[in-house]
Each structure stands twice: as structure tokens, then as C-alpha cells.
From TrEMBL:
Belongs to the membrane fusion protein (MFP) (TC 8.A.1) family. Residues 294-358 form the Multidrug resistance protein MdtA-like C-terminal permuted SH3 domain. This is Multidrug resistance protein MdtA. InterPro entries: Beta-barrel_RND_2, MdtA-like_BSH, MdtA-like_C, MdtA-like_HH, RND_pump_MFP. SUPFAM superfamilies: HlyD-like secretion proteins. Residues 214-287 form the CusB-like beta-barrel domain. Residues 120-179 form the Multidrug resistance protein MdtA-like alpha-helical hairpin domain. One of its GO terms (molecular function) is efflux transmembrane transporter activity. Keywords: Membrane, Transmembrane, Transmembrane helix, Transport. Residues 45-64 are annotated as: Disordered. It comes from the Bacteria. The chain crosses the membrane at residues 20-38.
């Protein structure tokens, strides 16, 4: 009897735990079903809210199919065709300055004259001596034929002429070297000397740059060395003129690949009649290769970027029985950027319309009205009625 009573007592103690377990499982099932129902209702309600909200005013543009040339990009520096710092070869006082800072000068044009008073005086004293020495030489020639003078006297007469001629040539050279002239045609910089100033050999006078045309030197990766040839067109832009594009052609290619960077240097020549481009400017360079490819493009303003990638809002025409036009978020894969456009590799087809402004107010499948001329189609799009 005692064993039977003990078994019944143990069974009674275990039954509450089993009841608790069954109850907990039941609560979990009920809670899960309630949460699933809530999520379904919430999503349905959010979708209904998106479609019931007032349409958002946006501007749009159509995706275009274009033909783009294959391009290589690089950065470079503008370089003068010729450039030098003009200096004085000899010491002397500046007696004339015949140029203005920033002026355009021709080759051989006189820029600065140093004082040559002493050299001119010496030259003027040597010239009469040379004339007399030449007369003595002629007389000595006649006398030597008649054996009236010795060969030594005759040789001295000839040597005197040569000595005086050399002295005169030296003075004339000094006088010429005290004229600082433009070695080539170009544009002058800012004057660095003053009238009456005493200059020493090597003192800077003015900078001269030949910038019509002008060079741009830039580097490209070695993998492009097989596709860049002389004469290929290049397009250059600078921060000084962000809206301008300067067109030129490749004029030289270095045969050396730099070991440290695995790149090679290319030089292009650019017309520069207006002299807007200056040596030392930083330049963005685009090399236009002959190869072409078809691309789909949209305005860059249509692209939105977040942690998940790039996306656009594509217009979906109103379904039958509905008067609303919806904007659907579509993720895209982008390519090159050129001007105001960006290449779309995947996600948008040519002819589809994308939102170009007003995206911040949109969510997926938001109703929209179009408030701007669709430039690509050449017509004014009428606002869609809500």
C-alpha cells in the first residue's frame, strides 16, 4: 500500500509541469499567428497609403541610346613649348627697358639695354688703329716684293692687323651681349629689373614663355600603350575654365615605361590663341580612341546612391482603370560619366522615363505628376490627374 501511494503522489507532482509546457506552446502559436497577421496588415496598409497619398510633382527625362567613343582618362600638367628665365650675361647698368610686363614679343625683339659707353669708346679708338695697320700691311706687301724689308717686319705688320681686328670683334660682341633680346616669340612675365639698376651676370630680367600652342603632358597605364597613337584627339579641361573643353592631338609618346608606376608619358599639343591656358596648370585629359560603342544614358541627377547601391525611379504608366502614374524604385548598374549624363549598364532600357528631380519625396511606387518639359521627347508632358 505504501508503494502505491508513493507512485500516485509522484505522478501528481509531475502533472503541473506538463500543463505549463502545453500552455506555453499554445501561447507561442497564438502569438506567432498574431504577429504574422499584423505584418500582413501593416504591409497592406503601407501599400494602400503609398497609393492613396497625393501625387508628388517631379521632373523626368527619357533614357537615351547614344554612340560613345572609347575614352581613356588621365591627369596632366600644361607645359610651354619653350620657356626660359631671361638673365643678364654681363654686368652693367640698365639704361633702357623696351617692354611691358605680360606683353607679346617677337623673336629678336630688344627687351633691355645695358650701358655700353665704355665699350663703344674703346671700339671707336680701335677702328682708326685698324685702318692704319691695314695701310701698313699693304705697304709692307709692296716692300717685301722688292726685298726692301725683312720677312719678320712683314709678319709683324700682318699680325698687328689680326690683333686689332680681334680686339674690335671682341668689343662688338660685348656691346651685342649687353642687349637682352627675346630668343623666341612668346609672352613675357612680370619685369624683374628697373631702369638705372646695376645687374650682375645671371640676374633675372623677365620670364618668357611660348604658349601658342601649348603642351599637356600626362601619364597613362602601361596596358594602354598599345592603343595610343600619334594624332589621336584629346580633350582637356581645367579648374580655371570648368565649362570649357580644349581640343588637341597627341604629338609625342615616350618609349619608356616607368618601373615605379608602370605608366608612360604622353604629350598632346593644344591650340591656345586666346592664351587662356598657362604653363603649370593642372589638367584633366580624355583621350578619344577610334573605337565606338552603343550605350544607354540618363541624366546624372536621376541617380540616387545608398548603402545598397545606385537606384532610379522609373515611371510606370497608369494601369487600366487607374489614372495614376507611379514611380518605381529600380536598382541599376552604372558605367562612365560624360558631361551631364551617366551610362546605365543594367536596370533601365532606352525610352524608359526616369525621375530627375523630386526623388527625395518619393517611396517605391509613389504616385507622381510630371511638371517639366521632357526634353528628350520635345513635348510638354501634361500633369497626371490624381
Amino acid at each position: 500500500m505504501s508503494d502505491s501511494s508513493s507512485s500516485e503522489s509522484n505522478a501528481k507532482r509531475r502533472r503541473p509541469w506538463a500543463s505549463y509546457l502545453v500552455g506555453s506552446i499554445a501561447l507561442l502559436l497564438v502569438g506567432g499567428a498574431s504577429y504574422a497577421g499584423y505584418k500582413l496588415y501593416s504591409q497592406s496598409d503601407t501599400s494602400q497609403q503609398a497609393h492613396s497619398r497625393p501625387p508628388t510633382s517631379v521632373t523626368v527625362a527619357s533614357a537615351q541610346r547614344q554612340t560613345w567613343t572609347t575614352e581613356l582618362t588621365g591627369v596632366g600638367t600644361l607645359t610651354a613649348v619653350q620657356g626660359t628665365e631671361l638673365t643678364s650675361e654681363l654686368a652693367g647698368k640698365v639704361v633702357a627697358i623696351d617692354f611691358e610686363s605680360g606683353a607679346r614679343v617677337e623673336q629678336g625683339e630688344l627687351l633691355v639695354q645695358l650701358d655700353t659707353t665704355s665699350e663703344v669708346a674703346q671700339l671707336e679708338s680701335l677702328e682708326p688703329q685698324l685702318r692704319k695697320a691695314k695701310s701698313d700691311q699693304e705697304r709692307a706687301t709692296q716692300l717685301i716684293e722688292g726685298n726692301a724689308i725683312s720677312r719678320e717686319a712683314y709678319d709683324e705688320a700682318i699680325a698687328e692687323v689680326d690683333r686689332l681686328q680681334a680686339a674690335i670683334d671682341k668689343q662688338r660682341a660685348i656691346i651685342d651681349r649687353k642687349k637682352i633680346v627675346a630668343p623666341f616669340a612668346g609672352t613675357l612675365g612680370i619685369r624683374k629689373t628697373n631702369l638705372g639698376q646695376y645687374v650682375s651676370p645671371g640676374d633675372a630680367v623677365v620670364n618668357l614663355q611660348q604658349i601658342e600652342p601649348i603642351f599637356v603632358d600626362f601619364d597613362l597605364p602601361e596596358r594602354n600603350s598599345g592603343v595610343v597613337d600619334l594624332g589621336i584627339a584629346v580633350r582637356v579641361s581645367t579648374s580655371a575654365y570648368p565649362d570649357a573643353r580644349f581640343i588637341g592631338n597627341v604629338s609625342a609618346i615616350t618609349p619608356l615605361i616607368q618601373e615605379t608606376t608602370r605608366s608612360f608619358t604622353v604629350r598632346a599639343e593644344l591650340p591656345n590663341q586666346e592664351r587662356k591656358l598657362k604653363p603649370g596648370m593642372f589638367a584633366d585629359v580624355v583621350v578619344e580612341l577610334p573605337q565606338q560603342r552603343d550605350v544607354v544614358t540618363i541624366p546624372q541627377t536621376a541617380i540616387a546612391v545608398n548603402a545598397y547601391g545606385s537606384s532610379v525611379f522609373v515611371l510606370q504608366e497608369a494601369e487600366q482603370g487607374s489614372e495614376q502614374t507611379l514611380a518605381k524604385r529600380t536598382f541599376v548598374r552604372t558605367g562612365e560619366r560624360r558631361g551631364l549624363d551617366i551610362e546605365i549598364i543594367e536596370g533601365v532600357e532606352a525610352g524608359q522615363r526616369v525621375v530627375t528631380s523630386g526623388q527625395l519625396k518619393l517611396s517605391n511606387e509613389s504616385p507622381v505628376t510630371i511638371s517639366q518639359r521632357d526634353v528628350s521627347e520635345g513635348v510638354v508632358a501634361e500633369p497626371t490627374k490624381p
